[in-house]
C-alpha cells in the first residue's frame, strides 16, 4: 500500500511540475508577444511620420524623386511585413532609405533650416531611439523564452506543449548597410 502512495506522490509531483513549467513558458511566450507588439506600435508611429517627412522634403528636393520613391516603397513594404524576421528585414531596408533621405538635408541648407523638417527629423530620431530600445527588450524576451524551452527539465515538456524557438529581431546580414553612412550623389 505504501508503494502505491509513493508512486501516486511522484505522479502528483510530476504533474505539478508540468503545470508549473507550462505556466512559466506561457508567461515567457506572452512577454515575447507583448515586446513585439511594443515594437509594432512604434514602427506604426514611424510609418505615419514618414509621409510628412517626404512631403516636406519634396518641396526642396523635387529632383530627388528616386530617393523619395525608395522611402515610400520601403515604408509600404515595412507596413505589410509579418512576423519578426520579415519585419526586421523590411525595417532595415526602410532605415537605409530614411538615412539617404535625411542625408539630403545636408545638400539643401534651406531644408535643413526648415522648422517643420527639423521637428519631423527630431521626432524620427526620437522614434528610432525608442525602436532600438524596444528591439533590445524584445530580443531579451526572446532569449529568456528560448532559454526557458531549452533548459532541463522544462525542455522535456516544451515540445509536448507546442513551444518552439522564436526568432530574434536582428539586423542580420544587412548590418553593414544599416550602419554605413548614406551617400548623396548629384
TrEMBL record:
Family listed: Belongs to the LemA family.
Organism ancestry: Bacteria, Pseudomonadati, Pseudomonadota, Alphaproteobacteria, Hyphomicrobiales
Pfam families in UniProt: LemA
Name of the protein: LemA family protein
Cited Gene3D superfamilies: LemA-like domain
Record's bilayer topology term: Single-pass membrane protein
GO annotation, cellular component aspect: membrane
InterPro entries, per database record: LemA-like_dom_sf (IPR023353), MamQ_LemA (IPR007156)
Domain of life of the source: Bacteria
Keywords: Membrane, Transmembrane, Transmembrane helix
Compartment(s) of residence: Membrane
Main location: membrane
Amino acid at each position: 500500500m505504501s508503494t502505491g502512495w509513493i508512486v501516486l506522490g511522484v505522479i502528483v509531483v510530476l504533474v505539478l511540475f508540468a503545470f508549473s513549467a507550462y505556466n512559466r513558458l506561457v508567461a515567457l511566450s506572452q512577454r515575447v508577444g507583448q515586446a513585439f507588439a511594443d515594437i509594432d506600435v512604434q514602427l506604426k508611429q514611424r510609418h505615419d511620420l514618414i509621409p510628412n517627412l517626404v512631403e516636406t522634403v519634396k518641396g526642396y528636393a523635387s529632383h530627388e524623386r528616386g530617393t523619395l520613391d525608395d522611402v515610400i516603397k520601403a515604408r509600404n513594404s515595412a507596413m505589410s511585413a509579418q512576423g519578426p524576421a520579415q519585419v526586421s528585414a523590411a525595417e532595415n531596408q526602410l532605415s537605409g532609405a530614411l538615412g539617404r533621405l535625411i542625408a539630403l538635408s545636408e545638400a539643401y541648407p534651406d531644408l535643413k533650416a526648415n522648422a517643420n523638417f527639423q521637428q519631423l527629423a527630431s521626432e524620427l530620431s526620437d522614434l528610432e531611439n525608442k525602436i532600438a530600445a524596444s528591439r533590445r527588450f524584445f530580443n531579451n524576451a526572446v532569449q529568456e523564452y528560448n532559454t526557458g524551452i531549452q533548459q532541463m527539465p522544462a525542455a522535456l515538456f516544451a515540445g509536448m506543449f507546442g513551444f518552439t524557438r522564436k526568432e530574434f529581431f536582428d539586423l542580420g546580414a544587412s548590418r553593414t548597410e544599416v550602419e554605413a553612412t548614406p551617400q548623396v550623389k548629384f
